[in-house]
C-alpha cells in the first residue's frame, strides 16, 4: 500500500477531481455507453469543446477515461471515449448522489 504524507486526505483529493465543472456529467454519460467526442458534448449538456477536451485529457491521465481512435471513411478517424474499470467504479458514487437527491431534494417545479 502506498505511503502518503500525514496531511494527505484521499477524500479531499477525490472531491477536488470530481468537483471540476462537467466531470460528473461526463462520467454519468459515459456510464451509459462509450461515445464519440461530439456525441459526448451533446449528451453532457452543453460543455464547450475546449473544456470537454481539457476534462477528458485530465480524466484520461488519471486512468478514469480511455480514448481510442476509430478508423473512419475519411483520413481523420474519430475519437471514442469510454470509462476504464476505475471510472466504472464511480457508478456507486453517482447512484449514491441520485439516491440522496431523490430523498432530500424537492422535485423540480413544472414550467408555467
Automatic annotation (TrEMBL):
<feature type="domain" description="HTH hxlR-type">
    <location>
        <begin position="9"/>
        <end position="109"/>
    </location>
</feature>
<dbReference type="InterPro" id="IPR011991">
    <property type="entry name" value="ArsR-like_HTH"/>
</dbReference>
<keyword id="KW-0805">Transcription regulation</keyword>
<dbReference type="Pfam" id="PF01638">
    <property type="entry name" value="HxlR"/>
</dbReference>
<dbReference type="InterPro" id="IPR036390">
    <property type="entry name" value="WH_DNA-bd_sf"/>
</dbReference>
<protein>
    <submittedName>
        <fullName>Transcriptional regulator</fullName>
    </submittedName>
</protein>
<keyword id="KW-0804">Transcription</keyword>
<dbReference type="GO" id="GO:0003677">
    <property type="term" value="F:DNA binding"/>
</dbReference>
<dbReference type="InterPro" id="IPR036388">
    <property type="entry name" value="WH-like_DNA-bd_sf"/>
</dbReference>
<keyword id="KW-0238">DNA-binding</keyword>
<dbReference type="InterPro" id="IPR002577">
    <property type="entry name" value="HTH_HxlR"/>
</dbReference>
Amino acid at each position: 500500500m502506498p505511503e502518503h504524507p500525514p496531511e494527505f486526505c484521499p477524500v479531499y483529493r477525490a472531491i477536488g477531481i470530481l468537483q471540476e465543472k462537467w466531470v460528473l456529467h461526463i462520467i454519468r454519460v459515459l456510464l451509459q455507453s462509450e461515445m464519440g467526442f461530439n456525441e459526448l458534448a451533446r449528451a453532457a449538456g452543453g460543455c464547450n469543446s475546449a473544456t470537454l477536451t481539457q476534462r477528458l485529457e485530465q480524466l484520461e491521465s488519471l486512468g478514469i477515461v480511455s480514448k481510442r481512435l476509430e478508423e473512419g471513411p475519411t483520413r481523420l478517424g474519430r475519437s471514442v471515449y469510454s470509462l476504464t474499470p476505475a471510472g466504472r467504479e464511480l457508478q456507486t458514487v453517482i447512484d449514491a448522489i441520485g439516491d440522496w437527491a431523490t430523498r432530500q431534494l424537492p422535485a423540480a417545479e413544472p414550467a408555467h
